[in-house]
Amino acid sequence: MDADVIVVGAGLAGLVAAHELTSRGRRVALVDQEGPADLGGQAYWSFGGLFMVDSPEQRRLGIKDSFDLAWNDWRGSARFDRLEDEDSWAVRWARAYVEFAAGEKRSWLQSHGITLLPTVGWAERGDLRADGHGNSVPRFHIAWGTGTGVVEPFVRYAEQAARDGLLTFHHRHRVDELVIENGAARGVRGTLLAPDDTPRGVASNREETGTFELTAQAVIVATGGIGANQDAVRRHWPARLGTPPATMVTGVPAYVDGRMLDISAKAGVRLVNRDRMWHYTEGVRNWNPIWPGHGIRILAGPSSVWLDALGRRLPDPCLPGYDTLSTLRYLRTTDDLVEHDHSWFVLTRKIVEKEFALSGSEQNPDITAKDRRAVLRDRLFGKGAPGPVRDFLRHGADFVIADTLERLVEKMNALTDRPLLDAAEVRRQIEARDLQLANPYGKDAQIQGIRNARRYLGDRLGRVAAPHRILDPAAGPLIGVKLHILTRKTLGGIQTDLDSRALGADGQVIDGLYAAGEVAGFGGGGVHGYNALEGTFLGGCLFSGRAAGRHAARQTA
Ligand SMILES: Cc1cc2nc3c(=O)[nH]c(=O)nc-3n(C[C@H](O)[C@H](O)[C@H](O)COP(=O)(O)OP(=O)(O)OC[C@H]3O[C@@H](n4cnc5c(N)ncnc54)[C@H](O)[C@@H]3O)c2cc1C
């Protein structure tokens, strides 16, 4: 045997599993199709948002959260409806995960040196129903160091275990086959890829130089989702979300190719909920791309006016930062919109300065570098938009700026094949919206939402601009942003039990086979159900990777 356990995938889930194993003295073969530069996978690039419930950070900001409230929100978002079958383990994972987020998660993170910013963000504000989708309260905690800081200790542990002779890195080893004999996992076979010294995140070569086979008592599959494989995204696109867009931007590196899902199915592993995905509607083309088709997600505060491709304001709950999939569904199922793949934000300088954040570790260099002084200086007391946002305003192909609405619409129209927006109609709607600001109450749901958000200290201080007229020249200039659909997360995958043991097509555990992280739908084959509450993906990798590593260590004792 080449190791006690083979871990396929050196992203966050695989690294956490590897740590659980090596810290219990097991020998691990860590196999990845990429080279050492990409250790840590997507987590390295991630923003580091972590869903947590009733934390000291929340309490300090006056947020009253509880397991009951969070579990109500989770169920309202997930809407599990395949309980006898595909959701049977997912719903148990969901409950266990919310318990983890309300309990041990924070101290466990701390035990690995991962700490949190004092602010708590309010992601996925929801669909405006008490029993519907969304977070009733802010829960999006950000790790110091962003996702880079979350994955860093686990990279360090793997490197130390390699020095101690407990872990062997098998870089540039692409797994093509799971070896399952007599109902038990025995190893993997695959292709050796030529060495490649491209920097982290850049697509590497696929030149094949040979084959390999590794054997062990157990195999943990932790190979991520399908987000970089737009063909697969379109193939699994569910009818309820209409037709997939002809053009999308890609929110993940090229190695998030989803191959391992089909390879697992071929080996008799049970895949479930493949129609559930989590793609964003606020993607912009990266002016400085790292991977092919690289898009960045805008994490928008609630104030931008959101227009469809034909210049009509989106109906609630399709508001910035509220309800990702309702917005996606609206854009992809409205008859006269489906031929267009974009929508628009119209906003002011004041809004961009206070409300625009960009997802990704490289877009938040101050937090990634754990530079507390820079965070305070630029985000809380700073004037103007953060540097990376300014770069997009200056260089981003999807950003236009103008002093008047008519000039702005002219520039927006220049970004489509033919002019689709009527300046007079855009003006009419924005003026109607602006009239709603005369009183501290009114009938516009978005303005009500802005006022509601500002009752939360964290939003008022750092995230939500004071309500103002979009057409107030003092708030200008005006900004238009062309938004694309951005591929990101896979919510379904390999069905697993609560120990991350993979199930076979017959619904029975396959001895010695585990799945963790995104490839397992972050646990159980779909812990999120249909909708995510955000910041739940990194945590899902930690929780399911930990479960896989712990059980595999017991099994190989
Ligand atoms: C820009 C960005 C921002 C994000 N922000 C957040 C956030 O704020 N909060 C949050 O919770 N989540 C966030 N996420 C999502 C989160 O980072 C990912 O879902 C998570 O890191 C996935 O980890 P993983 O270990 O499951 O898979 P991955 O990180 O994708 O790792 C899988 C590894 O498996 C390897 N692999 C795949 N197939 C094979 C094969 N056949 N043979 C060998 N190796 C293979 C790949 O090369 C890769 O290294 C973000 C993601 C991105 C890209």
Output the CATH class name of the largest domain: Alpha Beta
Bound molecules: flavin-adenine dinucleotide
Give me the oligomer status.
single chain
Largest sheet entry: 8 strands, mixed
Total beta strand runs:
22
| Mean of all residue-level pLDDT scores | 97
In total, the number of domains comes to: 2
CATH topology of the largest domain, which one?
FAD/NAD(P)-binding domain
Gyration radius, to the nearest Å?
A: 23 Å
Helix count equals 19
CATH architecture of the largest domain: 3-Layer(bba) Sandwich
CATH superfamily of the largest domain: FAD/NAD(P)-binding domain
Poorly predicted runs? none
In short:
With 557 residues, this protein is α+β, with helices and mostly antiparallel strands. It is built from 19 helices and 22 strands. It is 33% helix and 21% strand.
Question: How do the strands and helices of this protein lay out in sequence?
Answer:
Elements: E1 5-8, H1 12-22, E2 28-31, H2 41-45, E3 49-51, H3 56-60, H4 67-78, H5 88-102, H6 105-111, E4 116-121, E5 140-143, H7 146-163, E6 167-170, E7 173-181, E8 184-193, E9 208-215, E10 218-221, H8 230-235, E11 249-250, H9 259-266, E12 271-272, E13 277-285, E14 295-299, E15 305-308, H10 324-333, E16 342-348, H11 349-355, E17 357-358, H12 365-368, H13 372-380, H14 387-395, E18 399-402, H15 405-413, H16 423-435, H17 445-453, H18 457-462, E19 478-490, E20 493-494, E21 501-503, E22 509-515, H19 537-555
Parallel strand pairs: 1-2, 1-10, 2-6, 10-22, 11-19
Antiparallel strand pairs: 3-5, 4-5, 7-8, 8-9, 12-20, 13-14, 13-19, 14-17, 15-16, 16-19, 18-19, 21-22
Helix pairs in contact: 1-7, 1-19, 4-5, 15-16
This protein binds flavin-adenine dinucleotide.
